Amino acid sequence: MLLGLAGSLKRNVAASWVAHAVTLVVGVFLMPYVVSVLGDHQYGTWVFINSIAGYSGLLYLGFGETISRYVATYQSQGDLRKVNAITTMVLGVYTAMGLVGVLIAALAAAMLGSWTHWTPAEILELRWVIVVLGLNVLFSLSGSVFGGVLLGLRRFDLERSVSLVSDLVRLALIVFFLNREWGLLTISLIYLGITIAENTVFAWMAFRCLPELRIDPRLVSRETLSECGQFSSMAFLNVLASQLIYATDTIVIGLMLGTDAITPYYIAVRLCDFLRKPIEKIADICMPISGALQKPSQNAERQRILESAFGFTFLLIGGTTIGAVYFGGDVIRLWMGPEYVESRHLLAILLLAQVVALPCGVLRAFLFGLGHVRLPALVYLAEAITNLALSIVLCHYWGIWGVAIGTAVPIFVFELGLLVPYSLRLLEVPPSRLWRNAIRPQLLPLALLWSYSLNVGTQPWSHAGWAMLVIVSALGGSVLVGTWMATRRLLPA
Predict the structure, then answer these.
(1) pLDDT digits (tens, 9 = 90+) for 147-158
(2) Whole-angstrom Cα distance, residue 325 to residue 348?
(3) Burial (Cβ within 10 Å: 0-12, 13-18, ≥19) of residue 430
């Protein structure tokens, strides 16, 4: 059982990274291209509107985690009736919430004329953009049910493959059709078309992977609603917190400093996302695996997988942060141009916070998989509210620097101070064991990478261009991975 789940973890992580590598290449090319076509003002407006639209994620009501967890649990137990009941129920909820999203978008479009940030021509385009984004929410919500089924079946490889193809098609369409006039509407229509196609494929794959899957309203009972409602209500708080942390910063900047100020901050956020998200996939994959390991006799298996995932996550984000400190400025300069100097330091602050957030995300995923949602969700929500308050206050004094600091500080306080001790106690992993098996083996590889970056980073030739940056990064990765593999063999368990 352990070998099967460990193999599933490795296969799905590999598939996630291949898909993300394509997403990274697409994003690296697409963002400067779109900025060059639209300009800072229009691009900042697009980010601002999408940050607000990102709150449509709240319409998931926490059922995204619900369906993947319960499909994983009941499919592993052979209870396909429960799988079908939960899938049917979530599809009904998502369709209803999607229609609510369309209504909200229509109302927002009608009220847009009261804003003074844009000209009448811009307001006309933005009204259509908001309506299209509302339709995108409808199809994204209803179709994501089948993506959740694939995740519950631990078929991340299929789900990521669809995302990979979608990214490539989206890139081609934007490059072919985008122009400055009506550019925002063009992008939104492309996103809507891709969403419809993507979720259609998810549905087809879900029925292929689980032929017994049925959508039958007669299976839904009050018991099903009660069982899923308790879990999803806390998962909803987790989603709300995530939105406050990752989607609010650009809104705060747009409202307090204007949309033109968003672009330099968003460059750092976007690059942080490129580096963070492939590592974050480890936690995403851990939740259904934890859901499949519910029995007390499986505790040892679950703890070994947790330690492995936690340690590898810490190694990767630690190495990424070290590289960004010494070479992040080169990436931004070569990628977006020399005028975004402050984005380098913002990137370092945001990534430093992820050194804590991502390994703690693994702990949170295992707790969610076991059904322990309440306290982790409340801690995350408190962290998000503190983040928002600090960002607003510090933005007033320090501008976009204050927003970055306001994002980082609550992560250290809440994740280390509350989530870690609670998680280790509930998961029955002593801190000394986590240190010995998950953290200590990563310290030597990270120290050697730091030494390598410090020495190479002071040489002028290491900053000469993309080719040299790729070579330096590859050598740094070799130092990190090579030392890590040697350390795993030498350090006692």
Answers:
(1) 888 877 877 777
(2) 6
(3) exposed
